[in-house]
Every structure is written in structure tokens, then in C-alpha cells.
Design brief:
The chain is mainly beta and 216 residues long. It contains 2 helices and 16 strands. A 7-stranded antiparallel sheet has the order 10-9-8-3-14-1-16, with no helix packed on it. A 7-stranded antiparallel sheet has the order 7-6-5-4-11-2-15, with no helix packed on it. The longest helix is centred in the N-terminal third of the chain and has 15 residues.
């Protein structure tokens, strides 16, 4: 009977994901072994997306927040902190940079929008637009991906650079398959079709800790 209950619990988690509401991932120290691997609920090419997350760090060197890799391209979709107040968004290893007001010692809420047909990429920080750039018109982001928080992948699912690792916290990660308006971001940004913080499939390394969220 105990084994049956465990099997049912495992299947429930596998099918519905785990809710991390009120929790966050903590990356405690500079490392090339600390990461979280996210498993998308749906695997599909993306002609549009909205990626949102909240994060806190006080490091001033470059660091990776979100890295989406496919077999043929390590930086298929990358959200990167270049330095305080400057963020990079890459699609198929083509980079664009956005500058935002610095907010030291405070968490940030970042949303990145992209639409293939118009090639428009937007970045919003703490609910305010910080830029709009042209990026990869007509492209489709690949479907079979390894998604890693806290590390940049130099190869598919591996080869992390310790000097690009995150020291800090990440929570409320969401990835959807359409470009959301600002109003929609506030209402439903954490209910993404591919990644949903309320029903998340993930695997973490033993160097990442799940803690209660203390930030608003």
C-alpha cells in the first residue's frame, strides 16, 4: 500500500508539476555546479514568447539568469546580467543589450518579450519598459531544449563557467508562447504555457537550496 501511495504521488508531481508559490531558489556561492534545470510542460518551437522572473543579487560581475539551449545552439535563448543596471537578451546567439535604472540591494522583476514576425524584442524591469530592439525576424526558437537557471551553457546542458554563475535568488519564473501586454504581465505572467511557477517541473543540483520567499 505504501509503495502504491508513493507511485501515485510521483505520477501526480510528474503530470502536474510542483507549486513553488512563496518559495525561491537560492544560489549560495560562486560555483560551476550550482544550477536548476527546468523541464517545460510543452515542447514546441517559439515564434513569440514572454519570459518573466524575479531575482536578487548584489554581485557586479556578469551572470546568467536564464539559459535555454538546444543541441545546435548553446545560447538559443539567454537572459543575462552584464552588470548592475544592464541586461542582455540573446536569441540564436545574437545579442542585444538593455539599460535599466540601477536598483542595488533590491530584487528585480524582469520580463522579456519577443515577436518573430516583427522581430521586436522588449525588456521590462520592475513594470517599466527599458527598451525595444530588433532581433531575429522570422526565426523560430527550437523546441528540444535544456533550460538552466543560474548558469550559462557553453554546450547543451553542460560546460558552465564559474565566472558567469549567479550568486543570489530566483523565483516566479514563467515562459509563455505569446507576447504579453504590460497589463497581462501583471495579471498572468506566472501562468506560462511552457513554464509555470505554480506547476513547475524541475531538477536542482545539491548546491541550490529552496527557501521561503521574503521579498515582496
Amino acid at each position: 500500500m505504501q509503495k502504491l501511495l508513493l507511485d501515485v504521488l510521483f505520477l501526480t508531481i510528474l503530470s502536474g508539476g510542483v507549486t513553488l508559490s512563496g518559495k525561491l531558489f537560492t544560489f549560495r556561492q560562486e560555483s560551476d555546479t550550482a544550477y536548476v534545470s527546468l523541464i517545460p510542460r510543452v515542447k514546441k518551437p517559439l515564434q513569440n514568447f514572454t519570459l518573466c522572473l524575479k531575482a536578487f543579487t548584489d554581485i557586479i560581475r556578469p551572470y546568467s539568469l536564464f539559459c535555454y539551449s538546444i543541441q545546435s545552439q548553446a545560447n538559443e535563448l539567454l537572459l543575462f546580467g552584464n552588470k548592475m543596471g544592464e541586461y542582455g537578451l540573446s536569441i540564436e546567439n545574437v545579442d542585444t543589450t538593455f539599460k535599466a535604472p540601477e536598483s542595488p540591494y533590491a530584487p528585480i522583476h524582469i520580463c522579456a518579450n519577443w515577436e518573430s514576425a516583427s522581430r521586436i524584442a522588449e525588456l521590462w524591469v520592475n513594470g517599466k519598459p527599458v527598451g525595444r530592439e530588433g532581433l531575429k525576424k522570422g526565426y523560430s526558437v527550437g523546441a528540444e531544449a535544456k533550460i538552466i537557471l543560474g548558469q550559462e551553457q557553453d554546450s547543451f546542458g553542460r560546460k558552465f563557467d564559474i565566472k558567469q554563475s549567479l550568486i543570489g535568488e530566483i523565483w516566479n519564473v514563467s515562459l509563455g508562447d505569446r507576447m504579453l501586454s504590460l497589463k497581462e504581465m501583471g495579471a498572468s505572467c506566472y501562468n506560462g504555457k511552457l513554464l509555470n511557477w505554480q506547476a513547475l517541473h524541475y531538477e536542482d543540483s545539491r548546491y541550490v537550496v529552496i527557501k521561503r520567499q521574503v521579498w515582496v
